[in-house]
Design a protein that fits this description.
Blueprint (H helix, E strand, L loop, with lengths): L5 E7 L2 E6 L4 E4 L7 H4 L1 E2 L8 H4 L4 E3 L21 E5 L4 H8 L5 E5 L3 E4 L2 E6 L19 E6 L2 E7 L5 H11 L4 E4 L16 H26 L3 E4 L5 E2 L15 H11 L4 E2 L7 E3 L4 E2 L8 H10 L16 H22 L6 E6 L2 E6 L3 E3 L7 E5 L2 H8 L5 H6 L4 E5 L5 H7 L5
Parallel strand pairs: 3-5, 5-6, 6-7, 11-12, 12-13, 13-15, 18-21
Antiparallel strand pairs: 1-2, 1-16, 2-3, 4-14, 8-9, 9-10, 10-11, 16-17, 18-19, 19-20, 21-22
Helix pairs in contact: 4-5, 8-9
């Protein structure tokens, strides 16, 4: 039997390898080592694959800068390795790769197609600022990749979830994909980190957010009509001292996703894969029997092993509060200036708790005494991590996604552009 024009070997989260007709291999979004997002994100099941196992590929696709897709700690490919990236402003990823010495970039513009060996590759910039909320800016960094070989095709959307309109555009342009790899989770701090919610509220919001995402996924599958669907990306658990937040993350297992999708999309072959399993897009078969995730074993592993992981910033000396406040005032002014240039604004006040001092960082910098603004986003985090963020040694968005920041939001209304603005809180 001739080799399949296209197969996909799953590794973890958004990481896997496409293999083409001639044996060329494209690795996607390598994250293997626990502890991204300032130490908290971990794999379950724990991984056996090492960087040595995946370094000998023909190219690497990097969808965006988040460390569960581009883990700078272990990204040590040869400098002549072709790196497939979206070329689209603001190009944070390209600038980072070039600063690290990588220049062999296959740059693909939004909606354009490039040829690499036996593959045709098409990239897309963020389909929406935010799929579920109003956003003037919203998503700045994600990308999607379409891989085709001899008329067999896969959509790797990873974190760049299409809107329903974007799905119609993709179907009109490409027809039915042989495999659609789509996200099903709501990775991030909500509802687990929002202390304006009771534990019952958090459980209710956990369920609501998951159902919202899964219903959107079902809508996408009805439009895209792929021959097969793989739940993909956003698979993680929290380790370290924040591990208790796992119970009310906006996430679930790929098994739960598959169970939700199968009765609602009976004409789509829903695929679940474990580390090292290879799926043939032509025969619609995996090379191994599937073993479901044991959620009871997962909870034991989190409690017995992952809960004891230290975070990198916990090794830092406790900073002097006055020095943090000095940095914070400079950073707040710089953030407000950047917001002006990007036309970002909000009717919320943003408050940071620095030790015993509550500080407004937006709309104006001020130390508060007593009463808080009625409409506010109040943030509390470890001072050592805050200092790292202000000095650009860590990043607000990573700390937020990693569940290191606790929030009080009143009213409980999400404004994506406000959280985008906070990504610029640094000196």
């Amino acid at each position: 039997m001739p080799p399949s024009p296209l197969s996909f070997t799953f590794i973890a989260n958004a990481c896997g390898i496409f293999t083409g007709r001639d044996g060329s291999r494209i690795l996607c979004d390598p994250w293997l080592k626990d502890g991204v997002f300032d130490g908290s994100w971990c794999h379950y099941p724990p991984l056996k694959t090492s960087m040595e196992d995946i370094r000998d590929v023909d190219a690497v696709f990097i969808s965006h800068l988040h460390p569960d897709h581009f883990d700078e700690r272990t990204f040590d490919f040869a400098y002549d390795t072709p790196l497939i990236v979206l070329e689209h402003p603001p190009n944070f990823l390209i600038r980072k790769l070039e600063s690290l010495g990588y220049t062999n970039l296959i740059r693909i513009k939004d909606g354009e197609t490039a040829t690499f060996r036996e593959f045709e590759l098409t990239c897309y910039a963020p389909f929406e600022g935010h799929v579920f909320h109003e956003a003037d800016v919203g998503n700045l960094i994600d990308s999607a990749l379409i891989v085709a070989c001899d008329g067999v095709s896969a959509l790797n959307a990873n974190d760049n979830t299409p809107s329903l309109d974007a799905a119609r555009m993709l179907f009109e342009r490409f027809g039915a994909f042989d495999l659609a790899m789509l996200n099903y989770n709501a990775a991030g701090p909500y509802p687990s980190c929002f202390d304006n919610l009771s534990i019952d509220d958090k459980r209710e919001e956990h369920s609501r957010v998951l159902t919202r995402n899964l219903d959107h996924l079902v809508g996408l599958l009805h439009i895209l009509k792929p021959r097969a669907f793989l739940p993909f990306a956003g698979a993680y658990v929290i380790g370290g001292r924040e591990h208790h937040k796992n119970a009310v993350l906006g996430t679930t297992t790929w098994d739960a996703c598959a169970d939700y999708v199968r009765p609602r999309c009976p004409d789509v072959h829903t695929v679940t894969l474990r580390e090292g399993d290879t799926y043939d897009l032509t025969t619609k078969r995996s090379d191994k029997p599937y073993e479901p995730v044991d959620t009871a074993a997962m909870q034991r592993y989190i409690a017995d092993t992952l809960a004891h992981m230290p975070y990198p910033y916990e090794a830092d000396a406790q900073p002097d509060e006055d020095s943090v406040l000095t940095l914070l005032e400079t950073a707040a002014d710089a953030m407000k200036a950047r917001m002006g240039r990007m036309n970002l604004k909000s009717d919320f006040s943003v408050i940071l708790n620095v030790g015993d001092t509550a500080v407004s960082v937006y709309p104006d910098y001020a130390q508060l005494n007593g009463k808080r603004p009625e409409k506010r986003l109040e943030c509390t985090l470890d001072l050592r991590l805050l200092k790292r963020i202000l000095e650009r040694k860590s990043h607000w968005n990573n700390a937020e996604i990693g569940a290191h920041i606790n929030f009080v939001r009143t009213p409980n209304t999400y404004q994506p552009d406000l959280h985008t603005a906070l990504q610029f809180l640094h000196v």
